[in-house]
Batch of 2 targets.
Target 1
Amino acid sequence: MDIFLQQLINGLTIGSIYALVALGYTMVYGVLKLINFAHGDLVAFSAYVGLVVMMQLSGAISSSVIIILLTFLVTIVVIAISGVTLERIAYKPLRKAPRLSAVVSALGASLVIENGIMLIWGPRPKIFPADIVPNINWNIGGVYIGLMQLLVLVISFVLMFVLYFFVNKTKLGTAMRASAIDQDAARLMGINVDKIIMTTFIIGSSLGAVGGLFIGMYYRGIYFNMGWIYGLNAFVAAIIGGIGNIPGAMLGGMLLGIFNALISGYLSSSWALALTYVLLIIIMIFRPTGILGERVAEKV
Amino acid sequence: MLRKGLLGVLAFVVVLLFGVQAAMSDDVIKIGVQAPITGKFASEGQSIDKSVRLIAKQYNEKGGILGKKIEVITCDDEGKAVKAAICARQLVDKGVIAVIGSYTSTCAEAAESIYYKAGVLQTSDGTSDSLVKHGYWTFFRNSSPNSAEAAFTAEFFTKKQHYKRIATISDYSTFSTDLTNAVIKNIKKLGGNIVYSGKITSGSQNFTPILTKIKSFNPDVIYFGGYYTDGGLIRAQMKQLGIKADFVGGDSNDNPEFIKLAGKAAVGAYLVNVPLPEMLPYDTAKEFLKAYKDAYHETPASIWTLFNVDGLRAILYSIEQTKSLDTKKIADYMHNKLKNFPGITGPVEWASNGERIGSAYMAYRIGDDLKYHIVYRH
């Protein structure tokens, strides 16, 4: 039983990181019907930016809580700006072009960011300092959970709850949902769709930045092409949950993490990755719109 | 036609004369260095070249060998097989009696048959197992082959640590799979008990699922035959999951980044590799490193330089002992009579196929000071 619970916690930790990243994919898809392949690389970029900021701050400030807060703040701002810039340069000029052009542009942007990271920081992995978050570990009846894991879980859940509330209960969120359903109709209602798209990129990139910082602070080793592996998993998570659907991305991320952990734990770690994609195919066959479905898909 | 033929004959005679003269010139002993002086492995190649020149200088200051000075001739093989064969011919033509090199197995192998046909001794640090399988009496490997690491690891597990329940992890790369499988095979041969062996995807970072599974097998050691980027995280996540088992990493975990990645969790981890130059416990090693530092104001590029130096020292010693420049005699001495020669990298002697006997592999434990401490060696 404690093994099962341990696998559940293992899965939830990585799953909530997937979920944070998946939100970026799903929100952009919801509004633009575009798969932003560069999102994973923005996540990797955020880990590098976070590391630089953290190293600079740790020389100047002694309190690690303030260092962490400032690191998150600065990184989120930088990545949000990068996300908006990405949209301006790579996607906005192609908004009227066929879908394929935008997807190719997204792949191109992904390669530019990935190789940019390599050129700036080099191909060798970079490592986050060990002692920023105290290395506290609790043993609850044979199940181990660390402080950083707990932080990842709690902050992810809080962020997702805030996002859900924002999208469903605020005016801006309503405008966002309206733009996702029908951009022309939204425009006729007086919604500035360009501004909504920008907001979507800001929020998606910010959540991705948090995900990237979690990867850096929890796993500590970051490398220039890690955006690909996290991006792919998060993308799969978004599809499992129903791409375009915000609670779907959260659910998909968690499910993917837990599924992966349980497969490794009870079947075979060698097969975990392959079986994850089998799961994806099965879900696609029986529920093409993902588990929670996507509202706007019916339009097409 | 006739004139051309005559010219050819003339040229041949001239070359022969010069060649013979070079080989027979009795005031110097020519030693060749075939190494990657430029290219990807330049730092290694240059380090080998510098070391050979240093040793030659030391001998020459004492009056040389058999009353002759040592002359070093270097050829840059750039780490490429094609260039290696060209180098081999050039060095043979210049009349060397022994060649140090090359750094890479590929280049050493490309040159092997040329040295063999010319009767020129060759000593290389190449680790590929195939190097000693051609039956060339001229070839002497001065390092340990790839297969030695697995054998050493298995011995460390069963004879030193007495592990009863062993779990292994590898990634999907050929290198890691081969090494880990070889370790498993050797452990089983020595009667060890493998309770689990699994694979991870390199770079996936989250290894808690497989580690949690391994924990349920209750092993007393987890062996990882992959790279430090994953190994450091595996070690850290083992601690985080409260796994008490030891961690033993294969040679590719031996990197300063391993300790940075694992953080405090690195303490108590074991690594198996050939030692760093500064960790060699032998007096000859300390003397050589000091001389190298005095001469070049830096340390040798890696342990591989020192293996080559041992190859050279053994050859020079054998020349002194046999009082002969006949390579056949020297090789015979090295194969059969040279025992326990005090090398920089440990005792040096060779099997009849040119394989160095005994392995230079060592097991280290990372101590509380986050430094390596040797716990086991031959």
Note: Chain A has one domain: 2-299.
Target 2
Amino acid sequence: MAKIFHSVRLDADKCQGCTNCIKRCPTEAIRVRNKKAYIISDRCIDCGECIRVCPHHAKYAVSESFNELIKYKYRIALPAPALYGQFNNLENVDYVLTGLKRMGFDDVVEVSKGAEILSSATREMFENGELKRPVISSACPAVVRLIRTRFPNLLGNLLPTCAPIDLAAKIAREKAKKETDYTDEEIGVFFITPCPAKRTAIKSPLCHENYGISGAIAIKDIYTVLVQTMDKLKSEDVESINDSGIIGVGWCSSGGEAAGLLKERYLAADGIENVINVLEELEDEKLNDLDFIELNCCTGGCVGGVLTVENPYVAKARIQRLRKFMPISCNALEDYFSLDDLGWTKELTPSPAMKLADNVITAMRMMSKLKEIENSLPGLDCGICGAPSCRALADDIVRGYAQESDCVLHNIQVGGEDDWLPAPFRVKVQNEDVGEKDED
Amino acid sequence: MADSIRLHYDVSGTDFTLAGAASSDVKRTLKQLGISPDAIRNVAIAMYEGEINMVIHAGGGEIDVEITENDIRMVLEDHGPGIENVELAMKEGYSTAPDNIRSLGFGAGMGLPNIKKYTDDFRIETQLGVGTKLILKVNI
């Protein structure tokens, strides 16, 4: 199997082998082995939940360093609109955009510009009646990967377009080639990203080729220098760069993309647990009266990305204020592209990561065994075996990755002594007084 | 064929928040087996409707699922009031659900018709004062 590219990684030196991350992973992609966490590559969707929850900061996201810029003669920044919410008392996004230029970028093209084009394109696709409803947004790459892994029945409902970042990159590159003499190799195009999933989507796109994006720099990594640069700006230095409006910038928080469709029958959910619940309901056809479903893995939407600096609610409030003085929209599809330019060129296939076996009969035999093992396990989901739940351990056992003896309590259940165990895990009653219920 | 997987669920009669747990678990199991998406959808919809019916009308019940190589069989049994007029209950839009249930968005009278629609084999046995049993099959 081809190696799968990931931006979420483990720093084994920092990992203490605790069980915090295994419980939070939405695809049960983490196990603890030899006192260290271990990420199962074909299950990981790069959502970054483990980064959020790890108390030892052992999970991290790989992104390009600012030094990467020296490889290129002409450098372009593509800031995600979530960046605008990271600054206190910001009056005008041009301070941020000019700041980026002063930091070392030759040009800046807003991702919100791509977002507005995509909003316009999606409206057109709805009008053409070519979409399977309810249409699920494909903007959050972690959601797309989650659907591939856990909800393959819904792949046909995903909006079959590239992302705002891809369109922004294409515009930026074409503009650079027109205005300068640099070649494609000399032009570096960098996304200023709020999350690792977007970097993965850039480096290893599932549904199309890379649109010419050289890398992704984390918002948190340029934040300090950017703030210092912005502080030094005098008002007359500020260039007029901002070329996107309420719709485009609105994509940074949950509900923004949906609002840009100018339709009222939509739902917007954010936070991985809520996203999963909505996908379950979609799968059971309980939401068939909706036109559009916007899903963001991070709480609050992209402003909640793990590579941002500010609390998502604060960032959202700030952006709300900035948007007030913006026009509704500055970009339309026909200004730059036609629908053919932004569609998928590769088929999006289900991920086989959760399937027990390719052959149904084999899978059924394994499932019977899995259920049998699951029933024999204590059902505490304590995580001491390194798997997130007893069911996940049973799953690992039938796949040959673990054994029943990995469960410390299993040995007790089959008749072993449990005196040595801490009280919550003892099966046998050791003290008559303990566990006595209160009267009435 | 000796190989089959049997699953059993108790459906609580009072808690709406738990309705759907059984169908969700079956769905997960079927996905891991690599069963076709259409069959999984049919099973999930039929079972969920059945679960909701048990909660609304019958104070809960039991569901048994058997997965074989060729089909998925479900038996949903409750000890509720039974259905007085099955023909009427099978009509789309007919419902005896009380107002408090309807205000939750349920009781649209689509439960039984939907279960029939999404299954390949549909049998109903009901007796007033004794309960209702649905015997369903979805082909793979």
Note: Residues 158 and 226 of chain A are 36 Å apart (CA to CA).
